Amino acid sequence: MAERVDTVAILGLGLIGGSLARALRATGFCRQVIGYGHREPSLRRGLELGVIDDFTLDLDKVIRRADILVICTPTLVAADVLASILPRLQGLAQAPVVTDAASVKGNLYQAAREACGGSFPPGFVLGHPIAGSERSGVDASRADLYKNHRVILTPVAENDSDAVTLVRDMWLATGAEVVAMEVAQHDAVLAATSHLPHVLAYALVDALAQSDASEEIFRCAAGGFRDFTRIASSDPVMWRDIAIANKTALLDAIDLFSEHLGRLREAVATGDADGMHATFTRAKAARDEFATILAERGQGKQD
Ligand SMILES: NC(=O)C1=CN([C@@H]2O[C@H](COP(=O)(O)OP(=O)(O)OC[C@H]3O[C@@H](n4cnc5c(N)ncnc54)[C@H](O)[C@@H]3O)[C@@H](O)[C@H]2O)C=CC1
Ligand SMILES: O=C(O)C(=O)Cc1ccc(O)cc1
């Protein structure tokens, strides 16, 4: 691939940033990928692993050197990093395009406006790769993490269209499919499909771990328990941040689920076999349909 830009900078070199760096280096989207962070060890490790070409702990330097800045820090930290970057871009002749990979978009949209005196900065493109795992850190990064996965961009009316195209091209270079959505729709959809399942997995494992019979429970658990709870091994800081940043949409999703669970509880309590059968049948049809979509996308055999 002909190089699209000279330098991409990853701010926060963990699973998501490291995987993006690896993919961009493998495809030749840019001449070099540099890392920026608040601590040296993960950046030095990234250099040792060949994930990045260089790194710096100096935010002004990374802004001067990069054509694209990709914020890949935990969700709440991303808002702070953004607030540090945006004022530094004002008045620059060649400001880099800024984008992010955080799991919630509404809080970053607000943070960007606040950092720019109430108007949204045209060169900041909100993004979110829908790919990852329960693992964290640069050691877990993979060049093929985004291949055949979706990346959601949530461009807004104020965005510069060239900036959106550049960010889109960057993700396309990783093998991802790029789709666009509105900010609020993104946060509602992700609350239902990602944030709620993580909260449920954490709640189930925590509830069982605290029960008197927890040892026997975990010793006797089968594949279904393993499949349902894998994501409870995810990073607690990352998920605390997501739950805080997407509070309203997550509460809506929890309430919808609780109502549904309440109805199912009633069916179990009253021995309503038809009610239970109807729920399980509808859910099976929906899950089977989802499995078909995953298989078509080449994601059928993944975790
Ligand atoms: N893990 C996943 O499956 C997915 C995560 N995301 C989002 O991507 C972002 C990154 O997640 P991961 O890569 O999994 O986390 P991670 O923990 O593997 O990496 C985060 C990196 O940010 C760095 N960092 C922390 N504070 C910083 C600061 N103040 N300045 C600069 N760097 C800082 C950490 O040192 C670490 O290297 C999060 O916002 C997360 O919500 C999005 C899609 C999937
Ligand atoms: O581990 C899994 O299956 C995930 O669900 C990964 C994931 C975590 C956070 C996101 O914002 C998007 C994807």
Automatic annotation (TrEMBL):
Pathway in which the depicted protein is active: Amino-acid biosynthesis; L-tyrosine biosynthesis; (4-hydroxyphenyl)pyruvate from prephenate (NAD(+) route): step 1/1
Prephenate/arogenate dehydrogenase domain residues: 6-298
Domain of life: Bacteria
Enzyme Commission numbers on file: 1.3.1.12
BP GO terms, sorted: tyrosine biosynthetic process
Pfam family, one: PDH_C
Keywords from the named record: Amino-acid biosynthesis, Aromatic amino acid biosynthesis, NAD, Oxidoreductase, Tyrosine biosynthesis
InterPro entries: 6-PGluconate_DH-like_C_sf, NAD(P)-bd_dom_sf, PDH_C, PDH_N, Preph/Arog_dehydrog, Prephen_DH
Molecular function in Gene Ontology: NAD+ binding; prephenate dehydrogenase (NAD+) activity; prephenate dehydrogenase (NADP+) activity
Enzyme type, top EC level: oxidoreductase
Record has Oxidoreductase as a keyword: yes
Reaction equations catalysed: prephenate + NAD(+) = 3-(4-hydroxyphenyl)pyruvate + CO2 + NADH
Family: Belongs to the prephenate/arogenate dehydrogenase family.
Listed name of the protein: prephenate dehydrogenase
Source organism per UniProt: Seongchinamella sediminis
